[in-house]
Amino acid sequence: MKKIIPILFCIVLFTSCKSTSKVATKRNSTLADQITDAAIENIGIRYKMAGTTKAGFDCSGLVYTTFAQFDIKLPRTSYNQAKTGVDLGKNTSKAQKGDLIFFKTNNSSRINHVGIITETDNNEIKFIHSSTSRGVIISSTKESYYQNSFTQLNRILE
Question: How many CB atoms lie under 10 A from the CB of residue 120?
């Protein structure tokens, strides 16, 4: 019995330390961090046209659903999302985590793809999005497909 009490004490001590550190990390993170973390939780979920659930997302559905978790209401389509917030144009030096990045893919004449910026580094922007071929993934503007179809950045968070 005397040996069990110290063991139980250690278990309680380590368990409480672990959960406390998670809470502290969440409280200290910015809204942009929380939004990108929420989007990243969906990596690997398949693409589904008009999808807004874990059963499948399209690109704007992922953005719409992720921001909605934080009571930020966005339009449902990438075309209309591009009209929301502050338009930063193609000025990649202003890009920040949590901004939206828009594309005109497949020779489209209007915006038809969107992602959430997860990281910026010099001339590279990494963003999370739902691709038709691979589902929810993180991609880079260094990839020629996205480099050639990049259209604009929008700041949603103030």
Answer: 18
